[in-house]
Each structure stands twice: as C-alpha cells, then as structure tokens.
Design goal:
Blueprint lengths: L10 E2 L4 E2 L3 E3 L6 H4 L2 H13 L4 E7 L17 H16 L4 E5 L12 E2 L13 E2 L2 H20 L4 E6 L4 H6 L14 H4 L1 H14 L4 E9 L8 H14 L3 E6 L19 H5 L10 E2 L6 H9 L5 E4 L2 H4 L3 H7 L16 H5 L28 E5 L3 H12 L3 E6 L8 H4 L7 H15 L3 E4 L13 E4 L3 E3 L12 E3 H5 L8 E5 L3 H11 L8 H8 L24 E5 L15 H10 L3 E3 L2 E7 L2 E6 L7 E4 L2 E4 L3 E3 L2 H8 L5 E2 L11 H12 L3
Parallel strand pairs: 3-4, 3-12, 4-5, 5-8, 6-7, 8-9, 9-10, 11-12, 13-14, 13-16, 14-15, 16-27, 18-25, 19-20, 19-25, 20-21
Antiparallel strand pairs: 1-2, 17-26, 22-23, 23-24
Bound molecules: NADP nicotinamide-adenine-dinucleotide phosphate and iron/sulfur cluster (SF4).
C-alpha cells in the first residue's frame, strides 16, 4: 500500500491516461537556446524515466514579438520541428508525455517590438509596448494556433497555453493593462475574448485527441486584478472552448508579494485553486511551493485539485516520482526554493541548474561514472562541499570517510536552518544524513582530523569551510559584541537594540532572525496577513485593502555596511527584494557608506564619507559581527607542509561570497573526476 494513493492514481483524460497526478511545470532553463538538442532531450528524458506523468516545456514563443527576449526559443521553422522531435521521441521512448508551452510575453517581452492590448509599460520592463490593432490581434491568435499545430507535428502530446503570470493573455483580462474600447476591451466578456478565442481555435486546429492545458491566473496579486467571479467565468469559458485541463498561475511577475521563494509557506496558494473545484468539469491543477510527496498528497486528499504541478523539485531530483513510488521519499533531494541556480540564472542570462543538484540541465556534461580504481578517500568537513563530494565519490564506488569537528553533518546549513523563512534547510540536512547513511560512508564526527589521521588515504579532500573575518574594530572584544555564529546557534543573549555589522547574506539572515518571533513561513494565516494577501472572493486580485500587516519587530535593528550602494544589492536576483522588503516591514534601519570607528558600552560609533568627521553613535545593547569570512585552511597548510597532495573545495578554497551553490557544485565536480 502506497503512502501516496491520491498522488499516484492515474488520471483518465478520455483519449489518453496520465499515469499519476504529477505534472512537471514549465521552467525556462535556457537549454533550448543552447541549440544542443541532445542535451535538451536528455534533460526531459531523465525526468520521464523518473516517472512524472506529464511535463511542460519552457515557454516557446509563437512569434518574435512574443518572445520573452530577442532570440527566445520557439517553433518558427521546419528545422525547429525536427529539433523538437528529438526531444519528444526521447521522452516517449522513456514512457513519458510532454506538452509544449506556448508563451507570448506581451509587454513583458524584453524588446522594443513588444506588443500588448494597450501601450502601458510594465514596472518590470524598460520597454513600452505597442498597442495592437485588430489585424495585429488576429495575427497573434493565428501565430499561437500555428505554434500549437507545429507542436503536434513535432510529436508533443499537448500544449499549454500560458494565460497567467501577467503575460500577454493575462494582460487582456484586467483593466490595469487593457484600456481598449473595441471588442477586445471594456466589459469582462470583451476582455476575456482573446484567451477564449485562442483556446477555441487551438482546439479546432488540433482535433479532440490532443492535450490542451490552459494556465489561468487564479489570484493576480496586482492592483485591479481579476475578481474571483471573473476567474470562475473565465475558467468555464475556457472549458467550453475545449481545454482538457486547467493549470493554476499565482501572481503576476510584477506583483510585490513573493509566490515561490523559500520563505513562502509550503502549498501557500492551494486554497485558491480549491475554490475552483466543482465549478468546472475538467481536471484542475494546483501549484506553488509543493516540494515533497507528502505535501502533494495532502493537497490532493484535501480536495484542493485533481493534480499537482511541481517544477523546481524536478531540477532538484529527476526521480522524484519514482522515489515516491518506491517508498523512499527521504532520498529525494529536496528543492529548498532558493532560486539561486534556477531562476537567478535564468534572469542573469545563464543556463539553469540546481543548488542541490548540479547535474540538473548538465546531464550530458557532468556524468557520474563508476570509478575504474576504487580508492580510499578522506573528506574533512561535512558542510555542503564535503557532503556533495562524499556522496558523489561513494556513488562511484570509492571508500569514503568523512570527518567533522562537530557532532553533526551539515556545516553552515545547520545555521541557515535557524533563520526564519529558511526552514527548508532542515529537510536538506536530513536528506544528506539519509544519503550518507545509505551510501555506507564512514562518519568520524566530533573529530578534529590531524595529518596523522590521514596517512592511510589515497585522496584527501579539504572542505573545512570558513572562519569569520576579523573586522578589527576597536572595542570588538567587549561583552556586548557577538559573532553571527553565537547568534544563529542560539547560544548568546541578544539585547533589545542591535547593530549588525555587515549586510551580506548572513547580515540579512541575522537581522531577520533578530526581529522575528515566530516564523510566518510556518503559519500560513500569519504569512498572508504579513504580505497583505486576501481572499480574491472578497478583494479584487487578492490584495487586502489594508496592505501588509506584519507582526511588530522583536528588536530594534540597524543593519550596516561600508559600501554606499543599496543594502542587499548583491543578494539573489529574484529573492533580494523579498529580503529587503521583509526587513523594511520590520522597521530595520539600513545604513550604508559607514566607517566603523569603535565600540563601547553605549553602542557602535561610525563616521561617514572620506573625511570621516566626528563619529555618530548608533546606540546598541548588542553588536553582531557579520563581516564575511576567510578560508579555514590550517589542516590544508599542515598537510601541504608535510608534502601531502590535497584537493581544496568550498569555503576553504575561496571564501569570498561563498554559498552552498558553489560549494555543492565544486564538491560534485571534483568527486566525479577522482
Ligand atoms: P558576504 O556576502 O561576503 O558579506 C560580508 C559583509 O561584510 C558585506 O556586507 C561587507 O560589506 C562586510 N565586510 C566585509 N569586510 C568587512 C570588514 N573588514 N569589516 C567590516 N565589514 C566587512 O558574506 P556573508 O554575509 O558572511 O555571507 C557568506 C556567503 O553566504 C555569501 O555568499 C552569501 O551570499 C551566502 N549567503 C547567502 C544567503 C542567501 O540568502 N542566498 C544567505 C546567507 C548567506 P562592506 O564591505 O560594504 O562593509
Ligand atoms: Fe530549488 Fe534552489 Fe534547486 Fe532552484 S536552485 S531548483 S530553488 S533547490
């Protein structure tokens, strides 16, 4: 008997059956733009082999003006059809199903040629769109139908028409972006005419035996967004127009409410999709922050949807469904919703991957083969770098021993998991514990390894991490000064007013920790209130009229840096704004461009500008040092001095702006070659 009876149940669509209730949602990975179609095919085939019922590709542009950026992938020519065939054939050979997403970006297209219902620039784009005339609208419909027809020729099992997230079709639906007075604007019947017409014509062109998914924005989270009554009206019209399945979209890209970041509670929006259940006769899919089989099962057994969509969890682990079926969910590498290697890469113009799985989108390039010679490998340091090296080396058949001076696997992940909004790190540490035990890796915890302990090994990997940087501020040895380690390990008493020195990722995390009582990530109602999310049935677009209402801060915190740039500028591209907004809501004072002069019992003294001037006191009961890190290499130095060869990875290699993404990638890549 499976633990996931709802999740693993087949879904009969009439003309075809999905083998379970799991959809791999659309992700723009950048793979198609590499034009290495073998690589694209292997990415999807690996997920098909892993048991997912249906996958949706990254968004394919129906025409150049609808592309997310100039040169965005699409199905424009016969050659494109041939290339996409490579993907669909490989997926079908792996007993999978795949639908192509048709994504018209409208005013979100990063191009001066972008088009929209009205010439209103989006706050997240530098380009004002060109308002379409009647013929222009007709062309967009016809191009989307042509894209769907080509998708069928290319062997896809279906298409997903992207109608949410504030893209082109969504832009017609709301008065915020649609000021037209012709038959495509004005009344709701007119505003929804375009999405309905697209689905109707796609269905007519493709016949009855082809999956047509429509992704519908169930809660826009922008001013003047759709009402719930409009959402239901649209859903019914889309069903009548011939859609097979309705998928859920949450929030426009320009919404100032996080929808998928790690601090968003798990399944935070499934209650919205649930409201649609029973209103339409076709299956409904829900999505957002569903990352483990037990969460997905609960969503389905609670009647929130007929299917779940998960996207990033399939970057983290291609075998998600297979492991759920095998009853080994603890072995699923968990997506921690950090966005660091997926969306941050996409928005930075880089190929996606995954922080916890560097092989994602690199399946053909980063391969893990059985080692020809099995070696004895010592790894010193059980943080992310050491753990990823250990698991990869063990997978290859090496005999691995991992040392750590603490009694716990996880290294700095154990500090990250203490930060409110970063609870997913608990699951990541548990995953590593499970996998280290399963791989039979010898654990020497609570052991400070010395060169004498390591004489017997063929290879030594130093993953000893980092030590806090000494900012050398006069007075920092006083009793009112703490390191971030004392704070995040919960060992130190922190006063009511706090100055945090250093505003990197850790400074931000420490500030969050100090102002938060109970993490709203663990309490959905509180989180919805904190960000001002309301019931779309009561409030248009799901925005509460009173706006965000966070709990009062636990402490009065000032966050400081020497650079004069905006604090948090170097945080993740897609998540930095959330960290900044979160702290601003808690009245954290952010001060840049300072020089630290001294610390005494009254607080921290700083000066501003090149000529310093007289110091200003920032009153503080406690000062916390978060001034970055330096490599911890004492063991490496001793071994090298003794003539031993060592491999140095992670923070012990380069500490500057180290994060788990680089550590895991480096550890995996090194071990793949030993
Ligand atoms: P960091 O990002 O390098 O930031 C160090 C901070 O200390 C900067 O604000 C820097 O600003 C300041 N600083 C540097 N030298 C200083 C000195 N001598 N005296 C006083 N201040 C000094 O390091 P971190 O915050 O320790 O984070 C370590 C890594 O973990 C980073 O890569 C970080 O991104 C990652 N991390 C990521 C997240 C995340 O959410 N993705 C969370 C936590 C940590 P000024 O030089 O301007 O003063
Ligand atoms: Fe999930 Fe982070 Fe991996 Fe993206 S990089 S798939 S958010 S774990």
């Amino acid at each position: 008997m499976t633990r996931y009876p709802h999740l693993l149940a087949p879904l009969d669509l009439g003309f075809t059956t999905l083998k379970n209730r799991v959809l791999m949602g659309s992700m723009h990975t950048g793979l198609e733009e590499t034009k290495d179609w073998n690589r694209v095919a292997e990415f999807y085939a690996a997920r098909a082999r892993g048991g997912v019922a249906l996958m949706v590709t990254g968004g394919m542009a129906p025409n150049p003006e609808g592309g997310v950026f100039p040169g965005a992938a699409g199905l424009y020519t016969d050659d494109d059809i041939t290339n996409h065939r490579i993907v669909t054939d490989r997926v079908h050979a792996a007993d999978g199903k795949i639908a192509m997403q048709i994504l018209h970006a409208g005013r979100y297209a990063y191009s001066p040629d972008c088009v929209a219902p009205s010439a209103i620039k989006s706050p997240i784009s530098p380009f004002a769109p060109n308002a379409l005339d009647e013929a222009g609208i007709e062309k967009q419909i016809s191009d989307m139908v042509t894209a769907a027809t080509r998708a069928r020729q290319a062997g896809y099992d279906g298409v997903e028409v992207m109608g949410s997230e504030g893209y082109f079709l969504n832009q017609f639906l709301v008065t915020h972006t649609n000021k037209r007075t012709d038959r495509w604007g004005g009344s709701y019947e007119n505003r929804m005419r375009l999405p309905v017409e697209v689905v109707r014509r796609v269905r007519a062109a493709l016949g009855p035996d082809f999956i047509v998914i429509y992704r519908l924005s169930m809660i826009d989270l922008v001013p003047d967004g759709s009402t719930w009554q409009e959402v239901v009206q649209l859903a019914k019209a889309i069903e009548n127009a011939g859609a097979t399945i309705l998928n859920t979209g949450i929030g426009w890209h320009e919404a100032r409410i996080p929808t998928i970041a790690t601090s968003v509670p798990r399944r935070a929006f499934t209650w919205v999709t649930k409201k649609l259940m029973g209103q339409v006769g076709i299956p409904v899919i829900t999505s957002n922050r569903i990352n483990m089989p037990d969460v997905a099962e609960a969503v389905l057994s609670d009647g929130c949807a007929d299917m779940v969509s998960m996207a990033r969890p399939f970057l983290a682990d291609a075998d998600f469904v297979a492991k759920a079926m095998a009853g080994t969910a603890a072995e699923i590498a968990p997506c921690i919703a950090c966005n660091q290697a997926c969306l941050d890469h996409t928005f930075g113009g880089k190929l996606s991957s995954c922080l916890v799985n560097p092989r994602a989108c690199h399946e053909t390039e980063l391969t893990v083969e059985a080692a020809v010679t099995k070696k004895k490998i010592a790894i010193i340091g059980a943080g992310p770098a050491g753990l990823s090296a250990a698991l990869t080396a063990a997978e290859r058949g090496h005999h691995v021993t991992i040392f750590d001076k603490t009694h716990e696997l996880g290294g700095q992940l154990n500090m990250a998991k203490q930060v409110p909004g970063k609870e997913e790190f608990w699951g990541l540490v548990e995953y590593y514990k499970t996998m280290v035990a399963k791989a039979g890796i010898t654990q020497r915890l609570g052991t400070t390894a010395t060169p004498d302990d390591l004489t017997d090994f063929d290879d030594i990997i130093i993953a000893t991490g980092v030590a806090p940087r000494d900012p050398a501020i006069p007075g920092q040895d006083g009793p009112n000064v703490l390191s971030y380690i004392d704070v995040l390990r919960g060992k130190a008493k922190v006063g009511q007013t706090v100055a945090v020195i250093g505003a990197g990722g850790i400074g931000f995390d420490v500030a969050e920790y100090l102002v938060t009582d109970e993490s709203p990530t663990e309490n959905l109602d509180e989180w919805l209130q904190e960000w001002g999310v309301g019931d779309p049935e009561a409030t248009r677009g799901g925005l509460r009229p009173e706006g965000p209402k966070p709990d009062a801060p636990m402490r009065q915190v000032t966050l400081l840096q020497r650079k004069s740039e905006k604090l948090g500028k170097r945080l993740g591209k897609t998540t930095g704004w959330i960290h900044r907004a979160g702290l601003q809501m808690k009245n954290v004072r952010m001060v840049g461009g300072v020089s630290y002069e001294k610390i005494d019992a009254y607080g921290l003294y700083v000066t501003y500008g090149p000529d310093h001037g007289s110091p200003t006191l920032i009153p503080a009961d406690t000062i916390v040092l978060c001034a970055g890190q330096v490599p911890e290499r004492s063991l490496a130095d001793a071994l090298i001095a003794a003539g031993r060869a060592v491999h140095i990875i992670g923070g012990a290699d380069v500490a500057a702006e180290l994060d788990a993404k680089r550590a895991i990638d480096q550890g995996t890549r090194l071990a793949a070659t030993l």
